[in-house]
Amino acid sequence: MTGRGLNERLGWDRNHYDRLIHLSYGLLIAYPVREIVIRVSRAQGFWAYLLPVLVVIVTSIIFELLEWAAVIVFGGDLGIAYLGTQGDEWDAQKDMLLAAIGATLVVAGVNYTLDRNFTREWMESLRVKRREPLGEVAIAKMLAEKRKSEISE
User: Fold this and answer.
1) Complete DSSP assignment for the chain
2) Each residue of 5-32: pLDDT tens digit?
């Protein structure tokens, strides 16, 4: 509308659309991942908030590694053009950080919106449920008991 782009108006040397997409990824994927984590694994408290953020971080890392692999495969100027770092050697790390920030904002927003007794839920989720250590013998015994109960059903 003004004849100048946003980058020119703000004095930016690079196109920040890529950064916006990484932030949006964290904002958009964290809540569905949180729902899956809660419904499938029945995670609560600390774990229901941490695991979605970690999933977003890990998938962001995998994406950045795939981008790096594409650079290796294509090589030369074509690979560098595909990578799109625009001269920023920390581009991959910034992209992953933005996705993590987006996911953290969503998870924190869910916590704030639900207005639960967060401290109680957090402490309960971190409480040790089983005091005795589980060595190989105890784990084998638990698995044997589980198999017996599955057979009897």
Assistant:
1) --SS-HHHHHT-SS-THHHHHHHHHHHHHHHHHHHHHHHHH---HHHHHHHHHHHHHHHHHHHHHHHHHHHHHH-HHHHHHHH--TT-TTHHHHHHHHHHHHHHHHHHHHHHHHT--HHHHHHHHHS-S--S---HHHHHHHHHHHHHHHHH-
2) 656 666 656 666 778 889 999 999 999 9
